[in-house]
Structure formats: C-alpha cells, structure tokens
Write a structure and sequence with these properties.
With about 220 residues, the protein is mainly α. The longest helix is centred in the C-terminal third of the chain and has 40 residues. The N and C termini lie far apart (about 55 Å).
C-alpha cells in the first residue's frame, strides 16, 4: 500500500517569524490589555489606572518604530509583517480615538470631539475604498507610505497620549492641556484631510498612467 505524504509549503518571507514580526505580534497582543485598562479606569473617579494605560501605549508606540528599524537593519522584512504592521497601527489609533471621544472614558473636559473622529475615520475609509478600486482596475498596486500619512500618524499618537495625561498637565501648568488638546484636535483633522487628498492624488495618477499606457501604440 503506497504511503501518502503531506507536503506543506509557505511563500518566501512569510514564515518563520522573526524579531520585527514578534514585536508586531506583541503590539497586537497588548491592544486588548490597553483597551481593558482604559475601560476599567473609566469607572474610577480618580482615574488611577490612567498612567498604566499610558505606559502600555508607550510600549506599543515604541515597538512600532523598533520593528521597522529591525526589519531594515537585520534585513528581516516579511510579507506577513508588512500586512500586520499597519493593521496593528490602525487598530491602536482607531480604538483609542473612539474610546477617548466618550465623556465617560476620557478625562473630564478632554473628550475628543466628533469632527476629529470623523476626519480620522473618513480618511481611512476613503483610502481603503480607493485601494480596493485600484486593485480591481489595475490588478496590482504598490503605494509606499507617504509623508502626510506619517505625520498624520504621529499627531494622532500625540493626541492620544496628551488626552490621557491632560489632567496632570493641567495641575502642573493650569490651562496648558486645554490649549494643547484643542490645538491637536484641529491639527489631527487638518493633517488627516491633507493625507487623504494626497492618497487620492496618488491613486488618480496611477489610473492616469495606466490610461496613457493603454492608448500608446503597442499597448492594449
């Protein structure tokens, strides 16, 4: 009786896991812990666990920078890491901004306004839908991270951290946190819109290039 053999193959760069991928996975695993601390802290009058949430958030933000550095330094970039890294970033920022827009979660007087939430999510929705449209038309696209998108991520992370520590900042420097958070609200909304428009222009340029190639002699 012939012996059956099971062969399992993986795409190059997908497996085994490496240090950059491990840091990305750590960030994903810390996300529910961070959210649990924020929600449990919402029921406390003194928000005594807020700094614990800040510490977890800082670790997650640090691993975001470290895994990219290690991937380049150690030449350990992987396909799964390239997918999970931006997903982890979006989940962290998305969940944090949503929770901190509710008055029963955010420190009193520092809840993130709805227009900021809509600007952040509107940008992400448009970028995702635009990417799907480009994929359906072009079949394959390669869009590198753009500087407006990078700035948008930085100011969003800054807003989350400042919102969490705002009461302590106000005790040290009266009214400073109020001015800083409100400045970040406007900055996050404006940069999100600029980043969205930048990605839209990139998508239009890709479509225009495809159209020009299609009408050139020898192309169909």
């Amino acid at each position: 009786m012939p012996q059956r053999q099971l062969q399992i193959t993986t795409s190059p760069g997908l497996w085994p896991p490496n240090w950059p991928m491990g840091l990305t996975m750590l960030r994903l695993l810390l996300l529910p812990v961070f959210l649990w601390v924020m929600l449990s802290d919402a029921n406390q009058a003194d928000h005594s666990s807020r700094w614990f949430a800040v510490a977890i958030f800082a670790v997650m933000a640090a691993t975001d920078k470290l895994d990219g550095y290690l991937a380049r330094r150690l030449n350990q970039a992987s396909k799964i890491g390239a997918i999970l890294d931006p997903v982890a970033d979006k989940l962290l920022i998305a969940c944090s901004i949503i929770l901190l827009s509710f008055s029963w979660v955010a420190p009193a007087g520092f809840e993130i306004p709805r227009y900021v939430v809509f600007a952040v999510y509107g940008k992400d929705v448009i970028v995702v839908l635009g990417t799907l449209v480009l994929l359906s038309i072009l079949g394959r696209i390669n869009i590198s991270a753009r500087w407006p998108g990078k700035i948008s991520t930085v100011v969003q992370l800054a807003l989350i951290i400042v919102t969490l520590v705002a009461p302590d900042l106000d005790r040290l420097y009266p009214r400073f946190a109020h001015g800083l958070t409100r400045t970040l609200w406007v900055l996050v909304a404006v940069v999100s819109i600029v980043s969205c428009l930048d990605y839209v222009f990139v998508g239009v340029r890709l479509l225009r290039t495809r159209h020009e190639m299609a009408i050139e002699p020898g192309h169909s």
